[in-house]
């Protein structure tokens, strides 16, 4: 099962990096953060879902097997199948929302900091 977690972690990190990189690219082009995150998630959705579903379909027989030797392969398969079904949902729904919220907070804090410096300098 630990090997399944390592594999799942690697795929999820790669997908997250790709979404955030595309988001940053759109921000540099001048798009608003909310629009950029929507477009980044939309553009990365198909490759992420194809990766997840191919892994799930490939390991589903191992995850539900009960034959000889299934005690060894079943934990790895269950972890990968479950994680690959949950991973894209987290990366396409939860992570973009958190990214936009964090950007809003950091923008508000920087405006407050710059606003206080301007008042103190006058």
UniProtKB/TrEMBL annotation:
GO terms for cellular component: plasma membrane. Keywords: Membrane, Transmembrane, Transmembrane helix. The chain crosses the membrane at residues 6-28, 49-70, 76-98. It comes from the Bacteria. One of its GO terms (molecular function) is xenobiotic transmembrane transporter activity. The keyword Transmembrane applies. This is Efflux RND transporter permease subunit.
């Amino acid at each position: 099962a630990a090997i399944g977690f390592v594999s799942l972690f690697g795929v999820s990190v790669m997908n997250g990096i790709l979404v955030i990189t595309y988001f940053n690219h759109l921000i540099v082009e001048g798009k608003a953060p909310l629009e950029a995150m929507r477009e980044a998630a939309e553009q990365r959705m198909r490759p992420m879902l194809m990766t997840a579903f191919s892994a799930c379909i490939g390991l589903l027989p191992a995850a539900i097997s009960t034959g000889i030797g299934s005690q060894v392969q079943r934990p790895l398969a269950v972890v990968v199948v479950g994680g690959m079904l949950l991973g894209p949902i987290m990366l396409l729904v939860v992570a973009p929302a958190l990214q936009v919220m964090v950007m809003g907070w950091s923008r508000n804090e920087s405006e407050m900091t710059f606003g206080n410096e301007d008042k103190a300098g006058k």
